[in-house]
Amino acid sequence: MDLHGFLKALVRRWPTVLLCLVPTVGAALAVTFLSAPVYEARTQLFVATRSGEDSAQLNQGQSFSQARVQSYAAIVPTRQVTEPVVKELGLHTTPEELASQITAVAPLNTVLIDIAVRDTVPERAARIANAVAARFSAVVERLETPKHRPGTARSKSHADDETTTSPVSLGVTETAVAPTHPVSPRPLLNLSAGVFGGLLLGAGSVVLRETLDTTLKSSEALGELTALPGLGTIPFDRNVPRRPLVSMDGHSKRAEAFRKLRTNLQFSQVDDRPRIIVVTSSVPGEGKTNTAVNLALSLAEAGVSTCLVDGDLRRPCVASTFGLVQDAGLTTVLIGQARIEDVMQQAEGRLAVLASGAVPPNPTELLSSGRMTEVLNELADTYEVVIVDTAPLLPVADTVGLASLAQGALLVVRAARTSRDQVRTAAASLDRVGVRVLGTVFSMAPVPKGDPYGTYGRYGELPAPRASAPEEEADEPAGAGGAGQR
């Protein structure tokens, strides 16, 4: 996935990012408001050596102090410092717990030791810091005081000096005072961490979903997968279940899309125009019936003598879409109970409709029979174009037998719903029986934002009020709107 594709995926799946962002930001805010404030008091010590005024001795003493100051800093949180401080201040804690509150740092190339103490009470933090500094100074001076070696002869005065004097001394350069602002929690840092973590989690979730999602998001991706021409892209319209026919919409985006599909279909096969065209899909709910109905209407609108045949003998809904009689139709003709002209019905304009008739117990056998071939040929002799709505390819075998009798097929694929494997399997099943697939129709595609033609009801007119963002259409047909989902 390149950067452009990743950004498009983030925009498309923004609810996923938001779903990851809200809990992480909420957790960060909860940690901020539920955590007790912690204050930090600081004190600083200066390590000096007791030497003469000679410059060489001073330099020696400076080097001595710098060499040992790192070791001194490690003594600060030890028990010999913390235990007396706990007793002195009467703290309700252990020396080990107090040691965890103390931090000592000796900056490089200096003879300074910075001591920081954290506590939930600012005044107590300052008292502990000063007490630790005092006790630490005493411990270091005691450790550095040279001890008298037994058997060494020296004067009493000199022995006393050597056993009581340390070569180093620690002075306080900065006394700890009660801090006014807590160092923890840090609201801005916590909030930033929550936002960053949420965005990172959301981006990871989007990448994972995009990797696992094998559905097709664009007509370009569909063309790359099938190597078939894309004849049309039908935009999503939430009003399809109530108003499935594009003639009712006039110059809507869907109506223009079906006119474009009609034009592309007419010009794609100029030398060998198919007269009998089946419209099918991989699985139910991809909009094949709606595509067949409105393509037939669009052809009739252009003055093409068109017949629409409901070849889906398992879940027929062409008749209900137009409000026609369904009980008499294709199956009635196939079993010899009526002639085509006896059951042919007239829909809008010049469109003739041959309904499915009664649902038979053996639709696969009927649709692949010799009589079905005769019916299609008879219709092709009467009408310029015969559009046949069929059952989905993958659930049943009806369409494979019927499609082999036609002169071309349109494969309808629903945007962001049909998987690549389903499309690949459907195209392969048509290819195995020698069906000429004229192209694909990408249905229920999202309307791009900023589309100038999608913004206006008619080109050149003022925009109509836009509806709210559409919700996904239901999979099951409802009444006269059944063609919108089939």
Automatic annotation (TrEMBL):
Its EC number is 2.7.10.2. Residues 1-89 form the Polysaccharide chain length determinant N-terminal domain. It is found in: Cell inner membrane. One of its GO terms (molecular function) is non-membrane spanning protein tyrosine kinase activity. The keyword ATP-binding applies. Coiled coil: none annotated. It catalyses: L-tyrosyl-[protein] + ATP = O-phospho-L-tyrosyl-[protein] + ADP + H(+). Residues 143-167, 456-486 are annotated as: Disordered. CDD domains: BY-kinase. Residues 275-404 form the AAA domain. It holds the Pfam family Wzz. It is a multi-pass membrane protein. The keyword Membrane applies. PANTHER family: FERRIC ENTEROBACTIN TRANSPORT PROTEIN FEPE, TYROSINE-PROTEIN KINASE. NCBIfam families: eps_fam (TIGR01007). This is non-specific protein-tyrosine kinase. It comes from Streptomyces tropicalis.
